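I have been asked to look over a protein record a colleague put together. What it holds is a sequence and that sequence's fold in token form. Please read both lines and tell me whether the tokens look consistent with the sequence. I do not need a full report, just your reasoning and any doubts. This is what I was given:
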Amino acid sequence: MIPRIAEINATQSLYLDFIETLKRSGFEGDLNPDYANRVVLSTDNSIYQVLPQGVIYPKRTEDLVRIARLAEEERFQSVVLSARGGGTGTNGQSLTDGLVVDVSRHMNRILEINPDERWVRVQGGVVKDQLNAALKPYGLFFAPELSTSNRATIGGMINTDASGQGSVLYGKTRDHVLDLTSVWLGGDIWHSAPLEAGELEVAKTQPGKVGEIHRLLDEIHRDQAELIDACFPKLNRCLTGYDLAHIYDESGRFNLNSILCGAEGSLAFIAEARLNVLPIPTYSALVNVKYDSFESSLRDAKSLMEWQPTSIETIDSKVLNLAMGDIVWDTVRDYFPQRDDEPVIQGINLIEYTGEDEAELKGKVERLCQHLDAVSGQAGKSFGHSVVYGSAEINKVWAMRKKSVGLLGNTQGQKRPVPFVEDTAVPPENLADFIMAFRKVLDDQGLQYGMFGHVDAGVLHVRPALDMKDPEQEKLIRSITDEVVKLTRQYKGLLWGEHGKGVRSEYAPEFFGELYPQLQRIKAAFDPRNQMNPGKIATPAIEGVELLKIDGVPTRGRHDRQISAVVREQYDSAMNCNGNGACFNYDPNDAMCPSWKGTRERVHSPKGRASLIREWLRLLAEQGSDPVAEAGHIRSRSWLSSLTAKVKNTLGRRRGEYDFSHEVHEAMMGCLACKSCVGQCPIKVNVPDFRARFLELYYGRYLRPVKDYMVGSLEYMIPVVARFPAPYNLLMNNPFSRAVMKHVVGLVDSPQICRFSLKQGLKARSIDWATPEVIAALSPSQKARSVILVQDAFTSYFETQLVLDLADLLTRLGFNLLVAPFKPNGKPLHVHGFMQKFEQAAQDNVAMLRALEASGVPLIGLDPSMTLTYRQEYREFVSGELPEVQLLQEWLSGEIERLNLADKLPGGSYRLLAHCTEKTSAAPSLRQWQSIFSAMGQELEIMSTGCCGMSGTFGHERENLRRSEDIYRLSWGEIVNDKRINGNLMATGYSCRSQVKRMDRQQLPHPVQVLLAILSQRVNQ
């Protein structure tokens, strides 16, 4: 479909030679010069896109030494190296046209925890939240807080000297670095820690770079002391990277780490770090304060600092409204009530208190609240507030605040808020005036924007909305940045308050002034040939070597504008990915992207897949190919007419003929189509949607595997096969046929069709089918307590007893269940890219469902994944309003009065393992399960789990079996086998229950079956 990009040029040849030589040197990690890995790591969370020559994943410190040593050999002295951690930088810090060195895949171990002395030793690829999860049992935490803490690595935090909420109290990353193990160009390993005078003198005598650098820094400190004091601003978020102001720390010790922290990998690779950790505050409270204007929230924050909080964060109305439309709002809505007689919320301040004395903390909160009540409604003051106590609930609000970064990218239309002037820092007392001036700059350009940030530290994140695909709007990057630079100078602040310099290092000479040549001397001592992340922070004083310029680096918009508007619209959820990296969430008990967690390969993530689709579309456009038109052609032609071409192309693939589409295909086939990305990505990147569109085109040119046809036709075949299930079940159990299925077809361990039919079971219970005649015969009172079950193939034919249990449960609760005729839902068709057939299935279903809905009887579905298809995948293929098919718990929770049986039933405690799609696409429905169980006198805990690894038929496919098992063991396996949980586990998803049965030989019930058993106890008493 898309041939090799171009012949190998001299630069590519050099880098390929470097990679091959590195492999022969004993390198133990992964070496990826393939185009897919390069494309995925060509972007971060900035506006820029730079294609690297390859990606290197070192396995241990010795691999970093091999890289650094080889790069100093004469033939490789033009090779460029750039360290990368979580890839969440907003200024292109880790982007390079050389080699990316990514430590996150393998060098991610917590090496040592010393709770008595309160320090921890970690590798550079450890994720911040991963570290804090390991520290929590000791009552400790690593303090610097980030909105990206679930994917930001410690090495990345050190390289950008990261900080965030709470920095006034806790400082920045460097304030918690005790010592570093770094690898320098040439292969030296140096363990840097604060040095007393005698230790410094010893370090100065070290051979080579080590001694030279210690002598140089001491000389700069001695000779430039007055200039340093005058240049570096006295801010909480002072200049970082090459931090001359802190060559000596407050104790008078020489500290090389002040130079390395914030250096963005331009001086050395960070291999390990020993970090100071702190006790988790015993008590905490959060006061959520509402304002009728954002300016009021900013100006009031200054006076609120007098009430001595731990931190104050602010969010404007744009961000707040985006949060209200996101899954995250379900967890915090109760803390931001909006009465009819109140103004519309235009800004909020989040004021946190922490401490060890509960009475003292509550006293502070009460005094603040008394003040807020006294001034409520006054001009420029708040009009309402709420208080949250306890870290568990407070963390829900902070999770909403953290998501603000990504949510800003989810505004509608072509103009999206983008980061390029988003972390300015000024003295807090100047912040409100600075922001008003900042807003005027943007207002004069007619731009929309969102704002949030750390008002206590004088840092505010401002993201103007631009369509970067428009060349004229792209030019605003220069004009707006120049204006903001002037404002930061005017208000005694900085352009870079939190997110590092990266491409914006262009302004470093202006800010550092006469000191900039000293930075160049430091850079030259570490990296004389400018190989380490060149163009960032400082360059050696070499003729022709310059810092990068904000409008001199290719942007994503420049790439995307090559794709036609029609195609961009068709693939909009991939095009709109802004690289925020929420899909790189490390937490195994979070549903977000199981394929990323199971592989640790960035191509197998929503961001990775979106990047590949964008590049695939761009290359098609370059060829003059229109994928939208081609999809229409594929749907209109016969299968036989394209067979010859497909055979020819497939044989070419087997011979090794290159097509970038094969790399895209490999990434897409690793997707479980669980739709966690749709629910949890702030941008709502929808991998299953563009995956299905891609597969349709890919298999328009190449032969499909047989298994796809079997899976796609399953819903159509199963009603026929189920009439005589014994032959099918015997065939699936026969060792010979199972071997054929596995090795020829590509499917393993197919589930068994139930031996008795649903029709028989319903007839025995006098349950009617939902025909027009049956519905018309219902009396008004019967209709008021009736509900129609929309069947799905999995529960109706493989778990028939569950459907019958539902019938028994609803009957005992006084409801009248009707069952809709079975029609294929089409979900398997969509998953495998049979788009024309899926569209027909959707239209057939909607016609039936609309007729049933017109009767006034509610429609429900039992399996979450299949039921949610009616409101999600169908939306793209059916015009008009879709019929409402509710999840069982969504409907049943509305009938809660009929369930008030708590005083009549024995109490119990249960735990629910929810389906990924249900958790992320219908989050409120989990609380509805809790309300149902509560009404029946039962306690229900929603367990935090990742993905089970099955996801429909994914786990039944031979190529996915190992990955499916790995994903299951990450989260579900531990919970299912945890004896401390004491049983009482339930699962809502058919595929989840199937996976548990397959992996651990345990049969988890559905909540319906548990509720039925509870009611049965009542009957038996």
